[in-house]
Amino acid sequence: MNSTSHMIPLALKPLSKKKNKIFFWFFIPLLIITSCTSKPATVKEYLTFLNNPDNKLVALKKINGLEIKVKYLPPGYLTYLEESKDDHPYSPQKIDSLLKSYSKSKTFLMTIGQDKESGGSGDVMMRGIASYSEYKERIMNMNFHMENNVVLKTEYGDFYPVLSTLENSYGLSESISFYFVFADNEKSKNLNDSKEFNFTYSDETFGLGINHFFFSKKDMNNIDGFVSLKNPSFN
To answer: pTM for the complete prediction?
Structure first.
């Protein structure tokens, strides 16, 4: 799968222990805007907004003791992740360039874990595993074949991942997460013109069947518009 022509978030790489900085100037919108909108005004509020199911940027399903969560990752969030892992703040020009690059595609994070409310616990990767060979096969499938089980359906056609990555938690998490990036291709175009998105996951690992997660351009724009605003001193 060719990933060189699409921006890959540094979040897909191991987190550096050197740094955990936040550049608030990137996320603080103009006061005149925040005075008449409920959109977030700080990084903390931004992340809370992004993770709040009421804002319809996160979709959740619980099946057979497992929980599947799919979250839309907007261009501004991907840019923030990339900048926060650098030793120096990005220039406004570089931020604009990253935003434009990420805006050409749609990125989602899918997480599968135990349903804690139903009493589930333990490493989900070990669910139903009876031998090391089965575990090894599961690891191989999830690292190299998950893109075959996911499609983003729109009114302009079906879009398959141009990039899929298994997030390495180094055994620190009982859940598993995958990044999926969708973009225009030879068979399907006008992804960004779509108004409705049906993220469809066909599970062949845990017996969860076909699962649909719905998102809309309107809800995506609620947060995309916010992160496009920059401190006026950089304009």
So the answer is: 0.78
